Amino acid sequence: MKISYINENREKIPLEHTSMLEKKYLLNVFEHIKQASSNDNLVFFVTYNQNHLPEYKDKIVFLLGDEHYRTPAYHDKVKLIFKNYFHKGYTQKNIYGMPLPPVAYYNEGEDLQTSLIKFEDRPVDIFFRGNVNSRPHFYKYMSGIFYQLVQNRQLSDLKYNIAFTDANGAPQGSNGFRNLNHHNALQPTSFISAMAHSKVCLCPRGTSVETFRHAEALRGGCLVISDKLPEAQYYEDSSFYMANHDWTNLPQILNEIFDAANKEKTLNTHKKMLQLWEDRFSEKAVANNIISIIKNPASYL
What we know:
- This protein has two domains: about 1-100, no CATH class; about 105-280, 3-Layer(aba) Sandwich (Rossmann fold).
- With about 300 residues, the protein is of the alpha/beta class.
- The chain contains eight helices and eleven strands.
- A six-stranded mixed β-sheet has the order 2-1-3-4-5-6, with no helix packed on it.
- It starts with a strand and ends in a 6-residue tail after the last helix.
- Helix 5 (about 210-220) packs across helix 7 (about 265-280).
- The protein has helices spanning about 25-35, 110-115, 135-150, 190-195, 210-220, 250-260, 265-280, 285-295; strands at about 1-5, 10-15, 45, 60-65, 80-85, 95, 125-130, 160-165, 200-205, 225, 240.
């Protein structure tokens, strides 16, 4: 099995020598493919390049980074394409979906198994950290109406770890969200530790409706509240809670989740999130799906 990263100049580089965020996750996927597949002649290209490759024909392409859901120019020149940012509207018969990975878990040096804590014992109820500029509807609601609801204790005294950053990654100090949870002495510091200590993760859209945060929240066992997602196999029957376009139904969703009468349902949803990670988003699950498609692509159309 051969694996190469194709850069913007169509040069082939060993995947392990790149600095791409998805590298460690993908190397794990390929290791599972190697262990489970009896075909040693598979040739994979990993790339962000939608227009050109150095070679075509029998290549299997992992296409990353296309937040605009475009069809790659070479779709009819390669064997198969596995694509992030996929939807069922693709009419090309050799393009298949591949979920975005949880990149933070592979780039902060954290070990999920030691950081994940029991759902009922998590000190933070609601978690979000992200860029303000790419999600104006979400930021407008959270920094306005929702903030007032929190300040007025109209959301059952829930505990929050919510912070926005500007385009340069600096904290947005004026909106007060960084200090909403200042009374919580157990508030963690790193992104994935914070997520693993939280019960609910807010996953608003950025440039695209999909974000790395979806998979990161699943791996951390958080309940996911998300914008509407594209039709893709790995999102079907996901038990995500769905926000409307301007997120004004967020209080209703939170009241449903944290209503004492729904405690058992909420805990079961948490378990479903962890199982969804194992069944569809984990390296092993993605590798097994890829192997199945390589063996019989027609059955997945």
